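Bug #77: duplicate submission created two jobs. Keeping one. Sequence:
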Amino acid sequence: MRRFRDVILEEIARVLPRIGEEESHAFCRELTRAKRIYITGVGRSGLVVKAFGQRLMHLGFEVHLADEITAPGAARGDLLVGCSGTGSTLLPLYMARKATRIGSRIVALTATPRSALAKLANLVIVVPAPLERDGRTRQPARSLFEQVLFLYLDSIILTLMQELGIPSKRIERRHANLE
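Kept job's structure:
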């Protein structure tokens, strides 16, 4: 089993540092200036972006799962964070089209920089992981993308904590307590 853990760690170590630093700082700026943040993704990418949304809530941001019944209507000044490795997943793409018409800004997290989702976005964060099992990954399809995405988004949270001076105690106070 150790051999496969090493494979995963080596693959992540090759991809994660290739995510653009300038785009990452721009992402933090988009998050901090948004009135409300909506997140969307499907499948395992959706799970990762939901975890990111939870951490944003812990930091004190107003954040909503875009497809949940309790999400208020989006407006100008809001931000949609859409996650899709291919950039063609129907739900994030549909929501990005709607957000464009509404006047909300869009950040796309994708492995496909020329995708339909990326073309709609105001900012594209390219996660340069292969989406299919090939010579660049030994893992099942899209696993590397999702792993790198999770770690990358946690690095965004740490950056926001530092830049905004948010202490860990504040996060602890906002953590779920009905579980």
